[in-house]
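Hey all, quick one. A colleague (J.T.) asked me to put the glutamine job into the tracker so the inputs and the structure tokens live in one place instead of scattered across chat threads. No bug as far as I know, just bookkeeping. Sequence used:
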Amino acid sequence: MVHDSVVRIGLVLPDVLGTYGDSGNATVLLKRLEWRGIRGEVVQLGVGDPVPNSLDIYLLGGGEDRAQTLAVSHLTEHPGMQQAAANGAVVMAVCAGLQILGEDFTGSDGVTHGGLGLLDVRTTPGSSTRAVGELLTLPDKELFADPMTGFENHQGHTQLGASARPLSRVVYGTGNGEGHDGAYQGHVLGTYMHGPVLARNPAFADLMLTWAVGSPLAPIDVPAISQLRNERRRAVQQMANRRKRLLR
Ligand code: GLN
């Protein structure tokens, strides 16, 4: 999967899909490769640039409704990412990015746009209140064990079709709006979490890197990281307990 021992990461349209610092996901992947002595390279693919089908990982971020339609036209005209995904490349998309990977999405103006068809999901405007705030979820057991956290800010709600699996189950927050957050199908992943999501969820970053490299990765042994992870586990547990008490 990885060419010339370099993991090549495409940052897809950060000029229109990069509203909430999601480009930081590329930095996290690079750093986690570097800590393991693996070379990585980030390729910025802006509006107007061709999209190569030879990269190992493609990252898409969030954006507003108009940016989404612009992104779909560009990626339809330059289908390199879709071709790479069909060959097993890893694609990870956040919020607006998740929505455009689906079959279709309807913006708050009520207009439905065709998506890129990489995920069997559809998005429609959710309830009148926009989902804004912290999101806490438990990932699909097939993927990894650590709970996930992120920040969400979206109007759209996403329904999954039969071919997509939910990425995680919501403990706190809105996510897709049906009790789950995000979706995955093969190596294509989507979530509503900003953060950037890979900075807040290193296990998610390592899942993507394992898929891209095609073999298990060496653990990263930084004491401060395990300390932070333990603190976070405790915080997540406290949040879950608080929620249980509130629902009682
Ligand atoms: N415009 C989309 C929505 O509101 C996506 C927003 C985002 O990417 N944060 O649902």
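Adding what we noticed when we looked at it: The mean pLDDT is 93. Residues 62-65, 95-96, 153-156 surround glutamine (CB under 6 Å).
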